[in-house]
Amino acid sequence: MQEVADNNCVYRNEIHHSAGERTQVLQDVAADPTLPRTKAVRCSNCGHGEAVFFQATARGEEGMTLFFVCCNPNCGHRWRD
């Protein structure tokens, strides 16, 4: 059975975040239980010895970059390798 659409318009929802909102999203990443964690790094901001990490493309660069986010809930510092 096929259903005929009343309208063939495709919608696109663009979400724009302020810099502060992006920072909060990255801090929430530290609490994500699905991301790998490492104790082989030390946060240069607070000295905490645990961070989550993930790979993503860095803005303006080709290839993947390894990003770290400090697991200290009072810090949330992020850096890349």
UniProtKB/TrEMBL annotation:
Q: Which Pfam families match?
A: Zn_ribbon_TFIIS (PF01096)
Q: Which PROSITE patterns match?
A: ZF_TFIIS_2
Query: Sorted alphabetically, which SMART domains does this protein's record hold?
Result: ZnF_C2C2
Which keywords does this Swiss-Prot/TrEMBL entry list? DNA-directed RNA polymerase, Metal-binding, Nucleus, Transcription, Zinc, Zinc-finger
Origin superkingdom:
Eukaryota
Task: Cite the InterPro entries for this sequence.
Answer: Rpa12/Rpb9/Rpc10/TFS, Zn_ribbon_RPB9_C, Znf_TFIIS
The entry's localization annotation reads:
Nucleus, Nucleolus
Output the GO biological process annotations, alphabetical, semicolon-separated: maintenance of transcriptional fidelity during transcription elongation by RNA polymerase II; transcription initiation at RNA polymerase II promoter; transcription-coupled nucleotide-excision repair
**A single GO CC term, please?**
RNA polymerase II, core complex
Location, primary (coarse class): nucleus
Q: Which residues form the TFIIS-type domain?
A: 39-80
UniProt GO molecular function: DNA-directed RNA polymerase activity; nucleic acid binding; zinc ion binding
* Stated family: Belongs to the archaeal RpoM/eukaryotic RPA12/RPB9/RPC11 RNA polymerase family.
Q: What is this protein identified as?
A: DNA-directed RNA polymerases II, IV and V subunit 9A
Q: Which organism is it from?
A: Olea europaea subsp. europaea
Lineage summary: Eukaryota, Viridiplantae, Streptophyta, Embryophyta, Tracheophyta
